[in-house]
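thought: fold this chain, then report.
action: predict
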Amino acid sequence: MKIIFKYFGAITVLLVTVILLMSYKKPVNFEIEQSTPNVVIIFMDDMGYGDPECYGGGPYHTPNMNKLAAEGMRFTNFYDAQAVCSASRSALLTGCYPTRIGISGALDHRSKIALNPEEETIAELLHAKGYKTSMIGKWHLGNREPYLPMQQGFDEFFGLPYSNDMWPVYYDGTPWTDTSSYRSTYPPLPLYEGNKVVKTLKTLDDQAQLTKTYTERAVKFINENKTKPFFLYLAHAMVHVPIAASSKFKGKSGAGLFGDVMEEVDWSVGEVMKALKANGIAENTLVIFSSDNGPWLTFGNHAGNTGGLREGKGTAWDGGLKVPFIVSWPKKIPAGTICNNLTTTMDMLPTIATICKTKFPGKKIDGVNVFDLFTAVKDANPRDEFVYYYDKNNLKAIRKGNWKLVFPCISQTYNKSGAIGQDGFPGKYGSDSVRLSLFNLSTDPGEDRDVKDKHPDVVKRLTEIADKYRKEIGDGLTNSVGSEVRPAAKLN
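observation:
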C-alpha cells in the first residue's frame, strides 16, 4: 500500500507541476512591462487653455478628455516653450528651448532651416531602446528629406509637413487668385506617407477628413504593435484654422463649427484610449495630452479661448503659452488629481527617458525630469523658472515661482479694434509697446496688475536670472549672442 500511495503521490506532484508551468508567465514579460511602457503623445494645434470641458470649455462637450483627466492628472501651470508651431514642436521633441537649437516661427515650404538631424528627439531615444515609433499628423520641423520624421527617429510617418493653412486656398475655401499675395505661391497641401507625397489636399472637404483619417491610422498602429513597446506621436491638424469637421460631427455640437471640431477631436482621444484598453495595454501606457500653443484669437469664433488668460498665440503673455496638459498611466499616476506646479513641453523628453530607461541626449537640454510630479511625490518641485521667448529669439519675460517679470518690447495684441475676425476670416493684428512689468500669477493670472514698484527686490532678482539666459542662449532685444546655442539645419 505504501508503494501505491507513493506512486500516486508522485503523479499528483507531476500533474500539479505541469499545470503550474503551463500557467506560468515568463519573468521577461513582466520586466518588459515594467521598464518599457508604451508612450502616446496626443498634441493638438492651437487648442487654448480654456478649450477642453475639464478646463472650463463649452458649451460643446469633451467627455473623453474629461475621462482622461478623471483617470489621470490635470496640470494647471503647463507651458509651451514658444507660442508658435515649429518652435513649440522642436521643444517638445528635443527638450530644448527653441532658441538654443536655432528654431523659430512657423516653417513652410519656402523655409531654409529645419530641425538639425544632430539633435536627438524622443523618438530617437526610444527607437534605440527597441521601440516601434510612429508620427501621425503635423510635423512642421522640415519640409523635405532629409529633415522629415523618418530621419528623426520615426519608423513611420503619415501626415502634413507643415500647417494646414499653408495652401493656396482663400478663407472661404475658394482658390486663392490674388497673385500679389505670398499665399498664391503655396502648392496644394502635401499628405506624406513616409518620405513620399501620396495625396494633395485642395479643398476644405479634404481637410474635414484629417481628424478621422489620423485617428484610424493611430488605432491601426496600436493594434499592430500591441505585443511590443511603442511610441505614438499623434499631432492633430485641428483646431488650427481652417477648421473642418467630418459629416459625422459637422453641425452636431450645437456650438458652431468650432464646437463640432472640438467634439470630433475629443472622439479621437476616446478612440485611442479604447484601442489601448481593447488590446489590454492601457495599464502599461503613458498617455500625454496637450497643445502646441494657445488659441489664434484673430479668427474669432473659429478660435478657442484662453480661460481668461491674457492675449493668445503669437505673444509672450500666458494666453499664448499656457495650455491644457493631462497625463494618464493607471496604477502609476494617481487618478483624478491636479498638479499646480510649473511644467513645460521641454520636460517631456527627460521624463520619458527616465520612465523608459533610455539614454539622455549627448548635448545639453533645458528640460527637467518631472516624474515626481506625475506620481504626486510630496514637496516635489523640479522646475521653478521659465523664460518666455518669442519672435526669433527675443527674451520677453521670465517666470520664477509665481512671479513673472515682463521686459520692455513690442508685442502683437488682439485687444485692438478690428483684431478679431469671424467665420474663418481673420481680423487685423494690433501692436503694443510693453513696459517693464511684474505680475504675481498666483493672484493675477490675467496679468493686468503691475506690482513692480512694490517689489523692486523681485525685479532685481529676476533680471539677474534673465541675464544668465541671455549669456547662454541669447536675446534679440538686448543684442545678446548666446554662448551655448546650436545651429538649425540649413536647406539648399
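thought: worth noting. The first helix runs from residue 2 to 23.
final: C-alpha cells above.
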